[in-house]
Automatic annotation (TrEMBL):
Natural source organism: Sodalis glossinidius (strain morsitans)
Lineage top rank: taxon: Bacteria
Annotated stretches, region: Disordered: 71-143
The protein's name: Phage replication protein
Low complexity: compositionally biased ranges: 73-84
Residues annotated as signal peptide: none
Amino acid sequence: MSMSLIAKAMNIKVGNPIRKLVLLKLADNANDKGECWPSYQHIADHCECSKSTVRDHIDALEKAGLLVKENRTGTNNGKGNTFNVYHLKLDNPMPTPSTPPMPTGGTRISHSFEPVMEPKTPYPLPGASPRNRQEKTKPPTKT
C-alpha cells in the first residue's frame, strides 16, 4: 500500500463518488510502482457495489488516463484464470470534463419531481394485535 498513491488519488477529481472510491481502492491495493491486481469482486465487496459497476468505473478511469489495464493469463500453460493488472497513472491526470455523474448498475435514483406522500398514521409496531392498533389510531368516542 502506497500512502502517496492514496493521497494523489484523493486529490484527483473523477466526476463520480463511486468512481473515486474504486480509484482509492486500487491505490490502496497498489505497490510502490502503482501496480495492483485485485479482482472485480474484491473491489465490489470493499466499495459496496456490483461487479458491473466496478467494471464500468474502471473503464472510465482508463479512458481518463488514470490507469492502464493489462490482461494476463494465469499459470498451467496459459490455461489458468485470467486476471487484470492495473498500472495507476496518477502523476499527471488529464482534466476531467464537467459531466454529470454516470448512473451505476447498483444504484437506483429517482429524478421525479412528484412529492413523496408520507402516511398520516404511524406504522404498527411488530407484534401489536390488530385491536391494539385500532385503539391507538381511533379517536375517543363521545358518550
